[in-house]
Amino acid sequence: MRLYSRNQVIGIACIAAAVAFGGAYALRDADLSGAAKALFARDKAPASVSDGPTVDIAATGDTARADSFILQTNVPEEPLTVADSNTVYTQDETQNISVYQKANEAVVNITTEIVGINWFLEPVPQEGGSGSGSIIDTRGYIVTNSHVIADAVKIFVSLSDGSQYEGKVIGVDRENDIAVLKFDPPKDVLLKTIQFGESSGLKVGQKVLAIGNPFGLERTLTTGIVSALGRPVKTQANTVIKDMIQTDTAINPGNSGGPLLDTQGRMIGINTMIYSTSGSSAGVGFAIPVNTAKRVVSELIQFGKVRRGSIDAELVQLNSAISNYARLSTDKGLLVSKVGSGSNAEKAGLKGGTDAVRYGSGRSSSVIYLGGDVIVSIAGIRVESLTDYYSALESKKPGETVEISVLRGKQQISLKLTLAEREN
């Protein structure tokens, strides 16, 4: 065993202390250096609101359409926050709050003025209906339901700050109950816009939120889930909107035209109607899928209408009376009454009737021609009525080729037909 003197012990202790102090200092310097780098990185992070980004409104897949419209938007780029240990709110509450803070300023209240008749049979202005809408472009474009502005002679748009502007109609598509409005904001006002999401990947049971103005109570938030998908719903205009989103989120009069949102605050649908025996929410509401809205809105802004394809022939909806008189094998489908010379229908081989008969009574009667083909399906969709016909061609454009099935006598044959442009 080796012995050390007192001076040697003191010297060794001093050296050990110096080594320990030096190591601790190096570790602290490394930690401070990492923290400084992290702080610098946060300071250099991009702003939470994008500086004039653009969105291709009609691009629902990997490839944008050539006739799409580019929106100018103003939405946060970062994902919404969730609850942490320092908040008094639950994760679900924090999510609701974050969605509302992100989207509520992009929701507007829409009121209308219509023309009524007073006791002296004179036209007088009257208060019309009210609804909601979403700002989709910083230049003042708004998407809403067409029934919200029905019969309006004046349209007023109220923003979240209380300011009100007069709006004008850019275009209306009654088949999908969609309208695009525009107002002119002051040059020094940067509007908040709603962010478009995707409706193709929705799942039943997924949480959704709605912001609107039920009963005139502005920017009200309600929550629920997606109850069902792919619902075909018949509107008051006697058209069928396909693939509607069913939700139990409370939707009441005044919510129409407002956004249905996912948990990231992205619009996945336009709240449109409810099923109710009382006129108030009964837990069954319907929203137009945002993918349908994107396609329709793009065309309304560019052309003021939605261009749709049609079969350029005179078609008559069959019923039992016509079927029995013409001795047809079916009373469902569309009878081809006349086919124009040189039309796409004639080129496809569609046959019109030759036997003229008068159908109907009084002033509502008309001449139709029997003996022609009976259309029973278009693009694989069964067609039994004019409503089915319009629904089958709702998303088809002029110039597209579709396959149609027709009954010719007792035979069913298939034809390929190039669509003409439908006259609105």
Explain what the structure shows.
The protein is an alpha+beta fold and 424 residues long. It has helices at 6-43, 91-103, 290-303, 320-326, 344-348, 386-392, and strands at residues 54-56, 70-72, 107-117, 123-135, 141-144, 154-158, 164-173, 178-182, 195-196, 207-212, 220-234, 240-247, 259-261, 266-274, 285-289, 309-310, 313-317, 334-339, 355-359, 366-370, 374-378, 381-382, 401-408, 411-418, 420-421. It folds into three domains: 1-45; 47-303, Thrombin, subunit H; 309-421, Pdz3 Domain (Roll), CATH 2.30.42.10. Helix content is 20%, strand content 35%. The strands form six sheets. A six-stranded antiparallel barrel has the order 3-4-5-8-7-6. A hairpin with a 4-residue loop joins strand 7 (164-173) and strand 8 (178-182). The protein is elongated.
Topology:
Layout: H1 6-43, E1 54-56, E2 70-72, H2 91-103, E3 107-117, E4 123-135, E5 141-144, E6 154-158, E7 164-173, E8 178-182, E9 195-196, E10 207-212, E11 220-234, E12 240-247, E13 259-261, E14 266-274, E15 285-289, H3 290-303, E16 309-310, E17 313-317, H4 320-326, E18 334-339, H5 344-348, E19 355-359, E20 366-370, E21 374-378, E22 381-382, H6 386-392, E23 401-408, E24 411-418, E25 420-421
Parallel strand pairs: 9-14
Antiparallel strand pairs: 1-2, 3-4, 3-6, 4-5, 5-8, 6-7, 7-8, 10-11, 10-13, 11-12, 12-15, 13-14, 14-15, 16-25, 17-18, 18-21, 19-20, 21-22, 21-23, 23-24
